[in-house]
Please model this.
Amino acid sequence: MSSRRVGVVSVLLVLALLPFGVGRYHLSILILTGLHAIMSTGFNLLVGYTGQLSFGHNAFVGLGAYSSAVLTTRLGWPPLLALLAGLGLSWIVALLVGVPTLRLRGHYLAMATAGIGVIGYVLFSELETITRGFIGIGNIPALSLGPWSVHSDRGYYYTIALLTFGGLWVCQRLVSSRVGRALAAVRDDEQAARASGIDPARYKLRVFVLSALYASLAGSLYAHWVAYVSPEPFGLDLAILLIVILFVGGIGTLWGPLVGALVVTVLGEVLRVSKGFNQLIFGVLLVVILVVAPRGVVGLGRAFRARRAPPG
Model:
């Protein structure tokens, strides 16, 4: 067995046994890391591999969360069906907003998608007859499929870990395919891509929709795990957090979203003890990380391995 396979097997074994060696608080941090990784993996497809900056993905996370919350608590839908309905609704909304906004480029696209994020947050806050506003929706049932249900943090850890690596696998398969090469062409030079017979608008829209589905999935999982949703977690802070995760982990890399999610989530929890200075310290540490590793932690690791590799 090659050293790479041994490393992969060792990592999987550690991840499988990890819930038995940590407390509930630390397990919740790992679950939150997985949710951030799912969001960031889809976001990375859009930003890192297609070159389209978005500040509106918080709206799709919230859409998934509220779809699961409303459909299960108000209409009595099974959690899995509500999750799938959230994915369907996010798919429709992503198509509707993606067609006009993705015609824009650069900071115009960033501002337009930021508007989508703001609109989503306002709707979650003001549609009180549906979302109950800042009171929130509680008693959201646990994720279930027939007789099988997830009632413990350990169960959610394994479920979210499986979906996290499943999302990374889909990303890897996509970017290594003909579609991935087309996305790279669109990212590098749209005019050259169009001259090569690639339709940039079609590819950008497809990836935008796919990234929205990743976000919606994470939102639904969050709702069933916490059993409560309110508008606060789905503001523009979440959109900025996704960008930070990508830059810390390594934008446009396969493992960047997972590594960035782990670093940023754990760092945020550690700095809670600093109370009023946590945001200041968090910002300073992020600047240090980006100065030391401008291509992210994954990029730093690659550079280190390249230096140690024998010449020739």
